[in-house]
């Protein structure tokens, strides 16, 4: 072969080698750009709905609570918090219980609008708590959030106040007034999405916020780099021991029911993810049926484990039973039919709640209002209505009782 032919062949090989590597570099760059774009997309917060989804009552069971008994119970549980320094956990529980639409003839009871104003307008919060009290709503690096577990002027559960706003239908663009200026509810939602972690102490109410406000089922990334979706959240909820956590684990069960009901409106779960939740809740229901007391209530050991009598001495046993029974009846009232217990279980629990609440002294109702709010809401939901849709009547309580 001539030297010229050898030189041409070498040049062709070199050109082919360079083209291959240029192509390879181009593929790598393209892949990197796609991965970067995907990474940036994951870091973006999902789109919010202007109006949160609504999970409405779906049963009407007068054998659980009659019209007459329901009115008697709800009359006793009106939000009589008008005046100075109303506990914020009472206000946000009462708002969730009664809804924005609520109004009362009782002059001591706050309307739904008044309760929401206390939570979202620093000026109104200052009117009832005084200018020297630290604000409820505070700014941080992620947005705006209510203070939690820092005294009576703060919320009692992580994201409970925001979940309340979601469950009563507060639009994402609803105005919020903080001590530093004006913003909107969306700033609170974005803060929760950015700061959320699967390892935080309470994540149940956060799950409710996401389910009702997010307008997409896609994954998103927390600031810790965790990929989050509703299957992942439900797996985290179901991984924890059933009775461990706030309110004997019932908030987690409520969150799972909300995920199922939202998934019926717009898919947010995979088929396998939904099936796992249904199976899990069916197992929980079996535990509750097995361990229901003869009287109809449950206690903190609704999973059948022995009660720690030493720790129980610190609590009012009736309040503990109202807490456990009211919460269970509430999440069942919204749950799909396939996870419900037998009728007898529901009827016994409903009748126990009615009789217990009717006999409670006013002082105990005031002390246990947060627990009772779940019980009262549950009884109304079992009649196919939200509490504000029930017409109340009866003799007003004396001022000395309040």
Q: Helicity, in percent?
A: 40-55%
Strand content: under 5%
Q: Find the count of extended strands (DSSP E, 2+ residues).
A: 6
Summarize the main sheet: 2 strands, antiparallel
Question: How many domains comprise the coordinates?
Answer: 1
> If you average the pLDDT, what whole number results?
89
Strand order of the largest sheet: 1-2
Q: What is the tally of helical segments? A: 16
Uncertain residue segments: 31-42, 395-402
Shape: globular
Return the CATH topology: Glycosyltransferase
The helix-strand sequence is HHHHHEEHEEHHEEHHHHHHHH
CATH class (first level) name: Mainly Alpha
Q: SS-based structural class?
A: mainly alpha
CATH architecture: Alpha/alpha barrel
The radius of gyration over CA amounts to 27 Å
Termini separation: 110 Å
Question: What does it look like?
Answer:
The chain has 402 residues and is mainly alpha-helical. The protein has one domain (57-401): Glycosyltransferase (Alpha/alpha barrel). It is 53% helix and 5% strand. Strand 5 (220-221) and strand 6 form a beta hairpin. Helix 6 (160-167) packs parallel to helix 8 (204-213), helix 9 (230-239) runs parallel beside helix 11 (271-291) and helix 10 (250-265) runs parallel beside helix 13 (317-334). The model is unreliable at 31-42 and 395-402 (pLDDT under 50).
Quick gist of this model?
The chain has 402 residues and is mainly α. The protein is 53% helix and 5% strand. It has helices at 3-43, 67-76, 88-98, 112-120, 122-129, 160-167, 185-195, 204-213, 230-239, 250-265, 271-291, 309-312, 317-334, 343-359, 362-367, 369-381; strands spanning 137-140, 143-146, 175-178, 181-184, 220-221, 227-228.
């Amino acid at each position: 072969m001539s030297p010229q032919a050898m030189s041409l062949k070498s040049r062709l090989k070199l050109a082919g080698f360079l083209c291959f590597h240029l192509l390879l570099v181009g593929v790598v760059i393209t892949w990197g750009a796609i991965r970067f774009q995907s990474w940036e997309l994951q870091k973006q917060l999902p789109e919010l709905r202007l109006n949160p989804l609504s999970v409405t009552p779906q049963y009407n069971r007068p054998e659980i609570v009659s019209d007459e008994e329901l009115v008697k119970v709800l009359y006793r549980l009106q939000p009589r918090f008008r005046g100075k320094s109303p506990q914020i956990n009472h206000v946000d529980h009462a708002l969730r219980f009664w809804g924005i639409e609520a109004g009362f003839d009782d002059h001591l009871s706050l309307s739904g609008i008044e309760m929401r104003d206390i939570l979202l307008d620093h000026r109104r919060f200052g009117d009832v708590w005084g200018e020297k009290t630290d604000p409820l709503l505070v700014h941080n690096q992620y947005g705006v959030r209510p203070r939690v577990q820092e005294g009576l002027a703060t919320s009692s559960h992580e994201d409970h106040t925001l979940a309340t706003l979601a469950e009563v239908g507060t639009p994402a663009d609803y105005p919020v007034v903080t001590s530093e200026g004006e913003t909107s509810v969306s700033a609170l939602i974005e803060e929760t999405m950015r700061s959320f972690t699967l390892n935080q102490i309470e994540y149940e109410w956060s799950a409710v916020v996401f389910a009702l406000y997010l307008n997409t089922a896609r994954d998103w990334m927390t600031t810790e780099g965790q990929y989050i979706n509703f299957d992942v959240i439900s797996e985290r909820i179901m991984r924890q021991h059933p009775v461990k956590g706030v309110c004997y684990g019932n908030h987690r069960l409520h969150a799972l029911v909300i995920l199922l009901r939202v998934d019926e409106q717009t898919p947010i779960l995979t088929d396998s993810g939904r099936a796992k939740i249904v199976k899990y809740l069916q197992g929980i229901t079996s535990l509750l049926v097995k361990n229901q007391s003869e009287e109809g209530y449950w206690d903190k050991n609704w999973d059948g484990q022995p009660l720690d009598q030493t720790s129980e001495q610190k609590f009012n046993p009736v309040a503990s039973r109202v807490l456990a029974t009211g919460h269970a009846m509430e999440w069942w009232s919204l749950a799909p039919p396939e996870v419900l217990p037998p009728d007898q279980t529901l009827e016994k629990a409903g009748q126990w709640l009615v009789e217990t609440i009717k006999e409670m002294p006013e002082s105990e109702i005031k002390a246990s209002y947060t627990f009772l709010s779940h019980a009262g809401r549950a009884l109304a939901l079992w009649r196919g209505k939200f509490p504000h849709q029930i017409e109340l009547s009866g003799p007003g309580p004396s001022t000395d009782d309040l």
